[in-house]
Design a protein that fits this description.
Layout: E1 3-8, H1 15-25, E2 28-31, H2 32-38, H3 45-54, H4 67-75, H5 78-102, E3 107-111, E4 126-131, H6 134-145, H7 149-158, H8 162-168, E5 171-174, H9 179-198
Parallel strand pairs: 1-3, 1-4, 2-3, 4-5
Helix pairs in contact: 1-9, 6-7
The protein binds adenosine-5'-triphosphate (ATP).
Adenosine-5'-triphosphate is lined by residues 9, 11-17, 113, 140, 144, 175, 177, 179, 182.
Length: 202
């Protein structure tokens, strides 16, 4: 089976930036956020099931899922939220496995923002955590998304803590530095992963 590295990190930590650099070096790239959108794309039976349960208000005029409307429906309703998670999580999980194994690159970087929260360590042979202090997460998230510091902090408060992610990690990438320095570490990790991929890594 393919050597799969799970890449995680809090909001604004730099997962996308780091994953793109691994891809540039030749790693295969799979993104849990993209898969989560694919499983509810127009035409998927999963979207029909969601429509059937929640009604017309969760569909946009063009027939796509209205994510904001669905989020509002499950926000204050624990049983609806559970129904939705029970529907989506196994599908997303299986697609992550399939797409990771189908990569032609020597190994796969599987980006899972909520790896720790959803206990998805078993999908990968190693876990790489992109790490920055919370203050840097707040700064970069608010600058990138044009949101206030307090709304960035509110999202961070709902995620696993920095320490929980670090405890789950085999490898840690310090992204609180200029990108040139980070890129050097990414190259070293890439060389390690290439080597591991050719061994019978358990
Ligand atoms: P999200 O979880 O919200 O999707 P992410 O973890 O994928 O975020 P990125 O989008 O890669 O994070 O990075 C967040 C912001 O920080 C971006 O604007 C990015 O350009 C910037 N950034 C990433 N790494 C660095 C760095 N080493 N130095 C300065 N800015 C950085």
């Amino acid at each position: 089976s393919k050597f799969v590295v799970g890449l995680t990190g809090g909001i604004g930590s730099g997962k996308t930036t780091v994953a793109n650099e691994f891809e540039r070096l030749g790693a295969g790239l799979v993104d849990a956020d993209i898969i989560a959108r694919e499983v509810v794309a127009k035409g998927e039976s999963t979207l029909a099931e969601i429509h059937h349960r929640f009604g017309d208000q969760v569909l946009a005029a063009d027939g796509e899922l209205n994510r904001d409307a669905l989020r509002q429906q499950v926000f204050s309703d624990e049983s609806q939220r559970q129904w939705l998670n029970n529907l989506l999580h196994p599908l997303i999980r299986q697609r992550m496995i399939d797409q990771s194994q189908q990569q032609v690159a020597p190994y796969t970087i599987l980006v899972i923002p909520l790896l720790v929260e959803n206990k998805l360590q078993t999908l990968c042979k190693r876990v790489l955590c992109v790490d920055v202090p919370v203050s840097v997460q707040v700064l970069r998230t608010s600058q990138r998304d044009g949101v206030t510091n307090s709304s960035a902090k509110a999202i961070i408060a709902r995620q696993a803590t920095r320490w929980q992610r670090l405890r789950a990690a085999n490898d840690v990438l310090n992204n609180n530095r200029v990108l040139e320095s980070v890129a050097k570490d990414i190259l070293h990790l890439h060389q390690h992963y290439l080597e591991f991929a050719t061994q019978s890594y358990p």
